[in-house]
């Protein structure tokens, strides 16, 4: 009992400590939440063989015998690239691969199903996803917006950085209607945080002020949001099965503060000055509703090798087609200004994701896995931002699992996301720094999961 309590407390502490450091693969959602699923291309809707699957389909915990704790850590190594041209479209302004951090994506789950009981209970904490990019300080050409005379402050240096993370606490209850059919519900409590540093265009023509390109530092404070997940599972003696799950949308109304600065020319002349605008930030974003369906089957003629298929629909457009932003208590160089309300027309589409995975029992204790995931990039060229680039579409995965006696299990997996570039022409409706630009991303990740069963 002491061992179980220690494992749960250690995993909980680690997950809370690392929640702000996250990255994603399908849009902003992670491909998987555990090494077993990751090795099989992220398939988990119908396969209930560990507790991390409850964040995909909560009904899967009904197929766990006894008690189980899973602790998973994914280490992601992303590779970003960004190139853009100056205001004239002739010379290269920036050409960089950005910083190369390591993103940590932890998750853990606990579930218990007493033998001969129709009820199963579980709880987990999962990094659902997010986005994170760090290009350091890049050049920005303010002449994109106003053609200042020669000698005016044209080029300035602006930091490009983002860190948006969303995690969930998922208490879960499942009920076995029959030996083959289970239903479950999981009321989720989400936690979100956001920090972005980027060039930011603001149309101030209504106030008689020229359009301005600011260096923006937007800091959204911690936010707790509710949502829910329901799932259904059909399992025929673990030989084949089907599952479907629905997740409600989660409204993330981030509030924080914004500091925006820009070089200007005083009185239309040649003397450099600085405009500094501050305000209270409110940004209405969210985590999308989703529908996920899947199946699996075991092939007895191949030593019981399992094949799993998942299809997912993610409603990104509901939150990221147009993002409302409000600045209140606005001050410009210390002087009160009207409140600012505008929209970031990112134009994201909904996303369909397709996953296929295989698991082969090489021995009684060793299982080998491989898989593939495809999710069409939901971000159109007109809505691309250098610091938000969840563009990767094709993923290949592989992994293995080894059981140590009756109580311990070790799983590991690797996922490679192929490079995807998004090119933007000479028109862009969010920030002129993206005009005549190319932004790309690829990644390699490793996941390791340690499990204890009783």
Protein described:
- With 454 residues, the chain is mainly beta.
- The protein has a single domain (2-453), classed as Beta Barrel (Porin), CATH 2.40.160.
- It contains 3 helices and 21 strands.
- The chain has a 21-stranded antiparallel beta sheet that branches.
- Residues 5-21 have low confidence and may be disordered.
CATH superfamily: Outer membrane protein transport protein (OMPP1/FadL/TodX)
Order of helices and strands: HHEEEEEEEEEEEEEHEEEEEEEE
Structural class label: mainly beta
Major sheet attributes: 21 strands, antiparallel
Number of domains: 1
Number of helices: 3
Mean pLDDT across all residues, rounded? 87
The best one-word shape is elongated
Strand content: over 45%
> Considering DSSP H and I runs of 4 or more, what fraction of the residues is helical?
under 10%
Outline of this structure?
The protein is mainly β and 454 residues long.
Question: What are the main properties of this structure?
Answer:
454 residues, mainly beta, 3 helices, single chain, Porin, 21 strands, 21-stranded antiparallel beta sheet, elongated
List the helices and strands and how they pair.
Blueprint: H1 2-17, H2 35-39, E1 66-85, E2 92-96, E3 103-113, E4 119-141, E5 155-169, E6 172-176, E7 181-202, E8 212-236, E9 240-247, E10 250-265, E11 272-287, E12 290-299, E13 305-314, H3 317-320, E14 323-332, E15 335-336, E16 340-344, E17 351-361, E18 366-375, E19 394-404, E20 408-424, E21 437-453
Antiparallel strand pairs: 1-2, 1-3, 1-21, 3-4, 4-5, 4-6, 5-7, 6-7, 7-8, 8-9, 8-10, 9-12, 10-11, 11-14, 12-13, 13-17, 14-15, 14-16, 17-18, 18-19, 19-20, 20-21
């Amino acid at each position: 009992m002491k061992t179980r309590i220690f494992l749960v407390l250690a995993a909980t502490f680690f997950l809370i400590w690392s929640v702000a450091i996250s990255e994603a693969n399908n849009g902003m959602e992670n491909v998987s939440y555990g090494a077993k699923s990751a090795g099989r291309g992220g398939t988990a809707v119908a396969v209930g063989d560990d507790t991390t699957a409850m964040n995909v389909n909560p009904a899967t915990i009904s197929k766990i015998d006894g008690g189980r704790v899973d602790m998973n850590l994914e280490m992601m190594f992303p590779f970003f690239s960004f190139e853009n041209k100056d205001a004239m479209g002739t010379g290269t302004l920036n050409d960089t691969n950005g910083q190369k951090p390591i993103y940590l994506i932890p998750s853990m789950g606990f579930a218990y199903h007493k033998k001969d009981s129709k009820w199963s209970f579980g709880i987990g904490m999962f990094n659902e996803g997010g986005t994170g990019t760090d290009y350091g300080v890049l050049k920005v050409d303010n002449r994109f917006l106003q053609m200042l005379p020669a000698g005016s402050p044209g080029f300035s240096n602006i930091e490009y950085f983002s860190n948006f993370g969303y995690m969930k606490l998922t208490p879960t209850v499942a009920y076995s209607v029959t030996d083959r059919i289970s239903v479950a519900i999981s009321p989720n409590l989400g936690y979100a945080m956001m920090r972005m540093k980027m060039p930011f265009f603001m149309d101030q023509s209504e106030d008689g002020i020229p359009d301005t390109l600011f260096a923006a530092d937007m800091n959204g404070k911690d936010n707790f949001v509710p949502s829910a997940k329901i799932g259904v599972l059909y399992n025929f003696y673990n030989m084949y099965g089907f599952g479907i799950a629905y997740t409600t949308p989660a409204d993330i109304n981030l509030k924080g503060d914004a500091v925006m600065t820009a070089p200007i020319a005083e009185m239309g002349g040649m003397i450099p000055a600085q405009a500094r605008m501050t305000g209270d930030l409110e940004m209405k974003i969210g985590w999308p509703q989703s529908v996920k369906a899947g199946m699996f089957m075991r092939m007895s003629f191949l030593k019981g090798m399992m094949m799993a298929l998942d299809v997912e629909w993610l409603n990104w457009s509901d939150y990221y087609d147009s993002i409302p932003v409000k600045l209140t208590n606005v001050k410009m160089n210390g002087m009160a200004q009207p409140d600012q309300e505008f929209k970031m027309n990112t134009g994201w589409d909904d996303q369909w994701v397709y996953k296929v995975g295989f698991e082969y029992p090489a021995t009684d204790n060793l299982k080998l896995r491989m898989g593939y995931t495809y999710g069409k990039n939901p971000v159109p060229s007109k809505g691309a931002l250098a610091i938000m680039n969840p563009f990767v579409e094709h993923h290949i995965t592989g992994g293995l699992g080894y059981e140590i006696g009756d109580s311990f299990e070790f799983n590991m997996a690797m996922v490679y996301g192929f490079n995807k570039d998004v090119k933007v022409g000479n028109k862009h409706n969010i920030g002129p720094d993206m005009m005549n630009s190319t932004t790309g991303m690829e990644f390699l990740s490793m996941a390791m999961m340690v499990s204890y069963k009783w």
